[in-house]
Write a structure and sequence with these properties.
The complex is a heterodimer of chains A (about 425) and B (about 240).
Chain A (H helix, E strand, L loop, with lengths): L1 H14 L4 H17 L14 H8 L4 E2 L21 E6 L2 E6 L8 E6 L11 H9 L3 E6 L9 E7 L6 E11 L4 E10 L5 E10 L4 E8 L6 E10 L4 E8 L4 E10 L5 E10 L4 E10 L5 E10 L4 E10 L6 E11 L5 E10 L4 E10 L3 H8 L5 H17 L5 H11 L4
Chain B lengths: L1 E10 L2 E11 L4 E5 L6 H9 L5 E8 L2 E2 L5 H7 L1 E4 L6 E5 H15 L7 H14 L10 E2 L5 H15 L3 E5 L7 H14 L5 E6 L12 E6 L2 E6 L2 H9 L6
Helix pairs in contact in B: 2-3, 5-6
The chains are: A alpha/beta (about 425), B alpha/beta (about 240).
The complex binds adenosine-5'-diphosphate and magnesium ion.
Magnesium ion binds next to helix 1 of chain B.
């Protein structure tokens, strides 16, 4: 498949309008990718999720997609109801619609940035692949002292026009000082067997608040990698919630650096898989300043040959006194052909810290099911009630009540 | 209503019930007393349909073979077990659970489901009767409830579901005397011509407040003696060993 990507890369470079410097940078990135290839299980980070194997098993003749001339119809039926929101709509990797109807002028903007020169390489082979094939970055900026009145939903839609393609997208999200933004990344796939590689970079300046809800709910055969790189200044806050349900494979990797005093990060997630799926959440929280805080709660429910992975690392630098780091992952295995792997890690160089981690997995309690059935619920209803009970405390962590409601709805919770 | 004939039950190759017979008619209250480990909870679990037992013998409920019915179908038909050890169910709101339960049973009976307002009205009434703190109902099911509150919650569920056969498995243990009276009042209020009670206990105490028609003694896997309310008092005086 790498042969095909090479051909695609040369074609792409030839037809693009990028400067020669930009092209040269792309070539460096592309060569880095070629040298490393898709990550496989020999790579520590990927030991539970052999992406090379997963891609070659499920995608025949992977090729790079760059048919960005064609305009795609936006299927508005998938838009979130009962929530006033701003929109960015991407179809097959191309921005088809932007709407900031709820905001003041010039306070929030999205810029298509064609200058890629100050890009760092060598994070991993997939970010290099992303750098090689994205012709522009989508830069979203929230201006100083501005709080968006409504959430921004970034719809990321794929349709039947793409199969066996690699789509790359790149976002740079900047929250200037004292600003606040809620983003819902809402994925919807009608396409099959693609590899979607998305790279988010977040800069959260002093006193700013980012809330990000990543929702992948529709069953589909795509393979997705999300790399999230978050940098936080003093007194900033990030809240990330991952709802990982639909795709065949997802790896959500979050690298979050708490660079300023009192910065805090909350990462909560649900992986709920029913059908031969494989999802991973990998976090890397770097406490690099005093009195920083991180909190992570990840719960998985696995059925029918599914597999979930949580790798979570808390790092506390010697400067990061009074670090408060907490991490817990739990899984329920609904059938015995499922697999849950957890790798919690603490790396602490400061002496005055409060850090803990834990992980547990098990089956649903048959006695609890019996108890509920004696009250008239059938087996499935009893199971569902217990599963929802298991997941409820993760959902309760969502601090936006409107968005919490939407997510409860998606999960089929009763009020 | 309920006929048990020559019931034998094993769990993990251990014989627990060995030729158990009992018949309960509508309107009756039966008490079963027996020492710890004599198989009282096993009997109530089997009546409710718990899996894991090796069973022989016959049980019919309203002339239907009980073994043909799934756990929830038995509940739909009106069998209710107040558990000796009610389970804690984290994350499940008590009110939502109660509503789901009452409506599952109403639906199975072909009745219309209760809407939120009707349901709350019903719960409020029943909770008041049992002096059950309503605030508890908005919490997770039995989580953080005291032993007594858990037991009361069982009786609350029973009075909301209004079953035909109420099995109370040591509901009295863990209750103080005031709570015991309230629970007994709740049970007495449910008495009707067409329902029946099977009260399992190993103290005579509860039977001062709920008057049984029959008292049975369970030992060595079978009922070794049956009689009227006087048998409970005799047992209290003499102990199980000296019964003849
Ligand atoms: N899962 C089990 N495996 C083996 N023995 C059991 C199991 N459950 C109960 N027993 C045994 O069965 C007997 C009856 O238990 P139980 O019905 O709970 O008695 P009671 O309710 O009268 O105190 C006891 O000796 C108990 O140890
Ligand atoms: Mg018992």
């Amino acid at each position: 498949m790498e042969q095909q990507l090479k051909v695609d890369f040369e074609n792409y470079v030839k037809t693009s309008k990028l400067s020669s410097k930009n092209i040269e940078l792309k070539r460096v990135n592309f060569n880095h990718f070629l040298e490393k290839g898709f990550p496989n299980k020999r790579d520590e980070n990927w030991k539970f999720s052999d992406l090379n194997h997963i891609i070659s098993k499920n995608i025949k003749k992977l090729s790079f997609y760059n048919d960005f001339l064609k305009s795609e119809q936006v299927d508005e039926s998938i838009f979130i109801n009962n929530l006033e929101h701003n929109k960015l709509v991407f179809v097959n990797g191309k921005l088809e619609k932007k709407e900031f109807n709820h905001e003041e002028n010039n306070k929030v903007e999205i810029i298509e940035d064609f200058n890629l020169l100050n890009e760092k390489i060598n994070i991993n082979s997939l970010t290099s692949l992303n750098n090689a094939f994205t012709d522009k970055h989508y830069n979203l900026v929230v201006k100083k002292n501005y709080t968006l009145k409504k959430p921004l939903v970034i719809y990321n839609i794929t349709n039947e026009d793409v199969t066996s393609k690699n789509l790359n997208l790149r976002f740079n999200i900047l929250l200037e000082e004292n600003s606040s933004l809620k983003i819902i990344d809402f994925l919807d796939d009608k396409s099959k067997n693609n590899f979607l590689n998305t790279y988010y970079k977040y800069e959260i300046k002093k006193n700013s608040i980012l809330k990000n809800y990543k929702i992948d709910r529709k069953f589909n055969s795509n393979i997705k990698y999300f790399y999230n790189n978050i940098n936080q200044e003093t007194n900033s806050l990030s809240e990330i919630f991952i709802l990982s349900l639909g795709s065949y494979f997802i790896k959500n990797e979050i690298n979050c650096s708490l660079n300023g005093k009192y910065a805090s990060a909350f990462i909560n997630g649900i992986i709920s898989l029913k059908n031969f799926q494989h999802h991973e959440i990998k976090t890397n929280i770097n406490h690099l300043a005093e009195s920083t805080k991180s909190y992570q709660l990840i719960k998985s429910v696995l059925d029918n040959e599914s597999k979930a992975v949580f790798q979570g690392k808390i790092f506390a630098d010697s400067k990061a006194q009074k670090t408060d780091g907490y991490q817990l992952s739990k899984a329920i295995l609904l059938s015995n052909n499922t697999e849950f792997n957890a790798k919690p890690e603490l790396e602490i160089y400061a002496d005055d810290v409060k850090c803990s981690h834990g992980s547990a997995s098990g089956n649903l309690n048959e006695n609890s099911i019996f108890y509920l059935m004696t009250r008239g619920l059938n087996y499935q209803e009893a199971k569902n009630l217990l599963i929802n009970g298991f997941l409820l405390d993760v959902i309760e962590k969502i601090t936006d009540s409107e968005i919490k409601k939407i997510i409860k709805n998606i999960m089929g919770f009763k009020e | 209503m309920l006929k048990i004939k020559n019931l034998k039950a094993n769990i993990n190759k251990k014989l627990i019930l060995d030729g158990f017979n009992l018949e309960i008619k509508p309107g009756e209250i039966h008490a079963i007393m027996g020492p710890n480990g004599s198989g009282k909870s096993t009997l109530s679990n089997i009546l409710s349909g718990k899996k894991g037992y090796e069973i022989s013998g016959q049980i019919t409920f309203e002339n239907q073979n009980l073994f043909d019915l799934e756990v929830e179908e038995r509940a739909h038909k009106g069998i209710f077990l107040a558990f000796q050890y009610p389970l804690e169910i984290p994350g499940v709101n008590t009110n939502i659970f109660l509503k789901t339960s009452v409506n599952a049973i109403r639906k199975a009976k072909g009745e219309t489901e209760l809407d939120a307002i009707e349901f709350l009205k019903l719960v409020k009434k029943k909770a008041n009767e049992l002096k059950f703190d309503q605030e508890k109902l908005s919490r997770q099911l039995n989580v953080g409830f005291s032993g007594g509150e858990k037991k009361k919650n069982e009786i609350l569920q029973m009075s909301i579901l209004d079953p035909k056969l109420c099995i109370l498995d040591e509901t009295d243990s863990g209750l103080d005397i005031d709570a015991l009276k309230i629970v007994a009042n709740g049970v007495n209020a449910l008495r009707k011509k067409n329902n029946a009670f099977l009260i399992i206990t190993h103290y005579q105490r509860l039977l001062n407040y709920i008057k049984p028609d029959f008292v049975h003694v369970l030992m060595n896997g079978k009922l070794i003696k049956s009689g009227g309310p006087g048998l409970a008092l005799e047992l209290e005086k003499k102990g199980y060993e000296n019964l003849n």
